[in-house]
Amino acid sequence: MWTDERVELLKKLWAEGLSASQVAKQLGGVTRNAVIGKVHRLGLSGRATPSRPARSRAPAPRTLVRGRPDPLTAEARGDERQREAAAERAEAAHVEERGLEPIQRATVLTLTEHTCKWPIGDPGRPGFHFCGRGAEHGAPYCTEHARMAYQPAQARRNRERDRMRRDRLVS
DNA sequence: CCCTGATTCGC
DNA sequence: GCGAATCAGG
């Protein structure tokens, strides 16, 4: 039901440029149709900032394929922004090299049941985002990041198993 | 297929 | 007034 509070929140989020479906998620308990309907009844249709379907503007300079950028170089200079940019370019090169689906820079608003939730960067810092690549239903990460997430544990288990075998041989 | 807002109309 | 169904489009 549309309480005064929820209407206010609707107005606020709508004014901020969130799409109807995004507003619906924030409010909870309503569909995007409900939001659109309410927006019209309130006479809020026709925004100054129409929401864009998050167009992927990625010029992607194709000049860095060969020269592998080195994050450590930037880090040594203490330049955080350059370090961040270098890390991103390294990721881009890695992605291109291995023919992976590019990272989708998901935000908390973009995440769904089938987007990879592998965090990239420091939470709270400007550049922070999630991987956002495709993930199977029920799986928190894409195949690449699932490997990163679970392989160490696997290796640990294997190490454990090997130690057990060795101990058994000794005794 | 994902998404966007707009409109209609039974409730 | 409400919002699901539907439409028209990106």
From TrEMBL:
Domain of life from the UniProt record: Bacteria
Region (Disordered): 44-97, 152-171
Record's compositionally biased regions (Basic and acidic residues): 76-97, 157-171
Ranges of Low complexity composition bias in the record: 47-63
Stored Pfam families: GcrA
Signal peptide from the UniProt entry: none
Name listed for the protein in its UniProt record: GcrA cell cycle regulator
Organism this protein belongs to: Parvibaculum lavamentivorans (strain DS-1 / DSM 13023 / NCIMB 13966)
